Request: fold
Amino acid sequence: MRKQKYDLDEELTKPYFKLENVVNGIFTAANTLYGINMEELKDVPSYNPNVVTTYKVTDAEGNLLGIFTTDYLPRPSKRGGAWMNNIREQYVDAQGNMVRPIIVNVGNLEEYLTIDEVQTVFHEFGHALHGLLTQCNYPSVSGTNVTRDFVETFSQFNENWAFQPELLAQYAKNEKGEVIPAELVEKINNALKFNQGFMTTELCAASILDMKWHELESIEGIDIDDFEQQVCQQMGLIPEIGPRYRTTYFNHIFSSGYSAGYYGYLWAEVLDKDAFSVFEASGNVWNKELATRFKQTFLERGGSEEPMVLYEQFAGRKPDNDAFLRGRGLK
Ligand SMILES: [Zn+2]
Reply:
């Protein structure tokens, strides 16, 4: 249906999204917004010199921000998926010395990326920026050590730049060096809104189901399927749409730290899209002044302050769901 309605053929887009070009894209975006520079380091210690690329990250004045390592390619012993890890947190030690972070982005990517994978690379680098730009005293609250319903704000926020025409013109080039045609970019941006009614509903349903399980004070005599059915009925879910995860394999909420917190993905998106709308409202999504404020208010401060206090400092108001709905094509 996506191909039919939106006429987007990923075989046509893939040649423009070579992994090394996309990496160039995330670095260019970060340089434009936050003034940071990445310099590749050779012969530095790493867990596997054959598979990782390591960069020294500096700010506009040349000060060291941290070390960033990428480990994007698949290999037989590797876990699936993509993630960001802190090899070392940022903190100020007992003698008052600044310790800068060491951050890694891991993936399982081929040489040419799908649209989804391009977003993943921007996403994980958003976490990496949160980890690298941090300026906190304590490792327990530096970088991405923020509340669970806040942490995805910065990874998702970074995805907003992936398909901006000005950036694509710099990184999305095929073997001949031709930039991705505008018509294809328009198709990508339209296709990103495909099926969002369904997806938003299944995510909301899973979030509510999660809450309902964790509101229980006792599970005595509860039948899992009956309970799930009941919750779905209460929320008025139509039979054609189920919760994103059914109870019996809803890993997030029983063993992965998202107990009563699955809503965090959607809530972070409300924040990330609302924050991005501040950039849009300025008439320039590459607004440096706003990017600096974003960096100083959020990326440098980790979990050292309440999320909503930080949010109001950045936007001058509380977020609303308008930009979230527009971002998903629902408004
Ligand atoms: Zn993430």
About this structure: Residues 196-255 form one domain. The beta strands are 37-41, 53-58, 64-71, 83-88, 91-92, 98-99, 102-106. The chain is about 45% helix and 10% strand.
